[in-house]
Amino acid sequence: MALPLVLASLSKLTEGDLSSVVATFYTASPAGFAALSNTTTILEASLTGTLADGSPFSFSIFPAEASVVAEIDGSTGYWGPSASWSSSPDAKHWTIHFNSSSDNVSGSMTLTSLAPPHLPCGAVKSGATEMLMPHIGWANAVPDAVAHVHFHINGTELAFTGPGYHDKNWGDRQFFESVGSWYWGHGRLGPYSIVWFDARTETGVEHFSAYVAKDGKIVTGSCANGSVVARPWGGEDMYPPPATTQNPDGFELRFADVEGRELVVNVTTAVTLVDFGAVYERWTGTLEGGFLDGKGHWKGLALLEEFKI
Ligand SMILES: *[C@@H]1O[C@H](CO)[C@@H](O)[C@H](O)[C@H]1NC(C)=O
Ligand SMILES: *[C@@H]1O[C@H](CO)[C@@H](O)[C@H](O)[C@H]1NC(C)=O
Ligand SMILES: *[C@@H]1O[C@H](CO)[C@@H](O)[C@H](O)[C@H]1NC(C)=O
Ligand SMILES: *[C@@H]1O[C@H](CO)[C@@H](O)[C@H](O)[C@H]1NC(C)=O
Ligand SMILES: *[C@@H]1O[C@H](CO)[C@@H](O)[C@H](O)[C@H]1NC(C)=O
């Protein structure tokens, strides 16, 4: 059972500011999520990212106790005294605090939602599935947001404004037994907020989740076969990706149906935020794309990840 809560945010990559940050709150053991290492606790809050010059940082806090209180659609969580989040009851405004003098990290970020929440197959409604693929649950409370970030990371200030995001995954067995490979990301391309999942089970069955919102409304929310196909390009771009391969330079995304047209987006990785051997990578990157019929062409920013298991 894993309960990470990711509140990610990234800044003006294109202007040479490489700042980014991801906060994750876990209730998971290494037996549930093998990327974790602490066998004595299921509680961990981590703050990971890159400073403005692109240098990576990573802090983990292992509290003795945690609490989560839900209110309407929002929640408040404390991971010990040093890490917490809170949201407004409508889940549109979020604040995350980290304050650990022993770890030399303090500060906060806020998210103001720009796009409606969704589940793997579309809008949140009664009876909608939360299953992204067998044994993996996913809920995306904030697919896109304006994030304001201000932390002091071991004596260096990390302060920026950029696209933000919040979701949650969980599972009922070891993640690494449920997933063969996995491409996920979110970003903003011109007027569109986009989120993609193109993942394979351990037996190679491909599952999709496509989300596109514009002007505060969902225009695509689908888990249909091929609703968003992500394929690697550059570097070692083999698909399906064996765990032994090096990383690609980017991904091509094809959203099959965005207001009746095909949206093609080229993601180019820019900064590596997490490098977990060959198994896991997290990057910030740039987006460029438009509709296949030639109408509209935009650029943007993304945060994305790849598992190869
Ligand atoms: C693992 O978690 C415990 C709390 O249960 C903490 O005291 C310890 O420092 C953590 N170990 C590592 C290696 O971080
Ligand atoms: C952070 O923790 C320190 C030491 O516990 C405390 O003095 C300070 O007021 C806290 N700051 C915030 C913003 O919570
Ligand atoms: C914080 O800075 C100190 C002194 O420069 C360094 O030894 C330590 O590794 C840093 N901690 C982290 C988590 O980056
Ligand atoms: C905290 O940050 C300061 C300033 O960079 C550094 O001198 C100190 O070594 C750091 N302390 C720890 C415990 O990392
Ligand atoms: C994506 O953009 C990069 C950089 O401009 C280019 O080299 C690459 O060929 C493009 N890939 C696709 C699949 O369009």
Brief summary of the model shown:
The protein is mainly beta. Helix content is 1%, strand content 63%.
Bound ligands, each once: 2-acetamido-2-deoxy-beta-D-glucopyranose
Number of DSSP helices? 1
Q: Give the CATH architecture.
A: Beta Barrel
Overall body shape: globular
Low-confidence stretches: none
The CATH class, by name, is Mainly Beta
Query: What oligomeric state do the depicted chains represent?
Result: single chain
Give a verbal description of the structure.
By secondary structure, this protein is mainly β. It has one domain (2-308): AttH-like domain (AttH-like fold). The protein is built from 1 helix and 23 strands. Strands 1, 2, 3, 4, 5, 6, 7, 8, 9, 12, 13 and 14 form a 12-stranded antiparallel β-sheet that branches. A 9-stranded antiparallel β-sheet has the order 18-17-16-15-23-22-21-20-19. The chain is globular and about 55 Å long. The chain starts with a strand and ends with a strand. The model has no long low-confidence stretch (mean pLDDT 94). The structure holds 2-acetamido-2-deoxy-beta-D-glucopyranose (5 copies). One 2-acetamido-2-deoxy-beta-D-glucopyranose binds next to loops.
How are the SSEs ordered, and which strands pair?
Elements: E1 5-10, E2 20-27, E3 43-50, E4 56-61, E5 66-71, E6 74-79, E7 83-87, E8 93-100, E9 105-113, E10 118-119, E11 122-123, E12 131-133, E13 136-153, E14 156-171, H1 175-178, E15 179-189, E16 192-201, E17 206-214, E18 217-222, E19 228-233, E20 250-258, E21 261-276, E22 280-291, E23 297-308
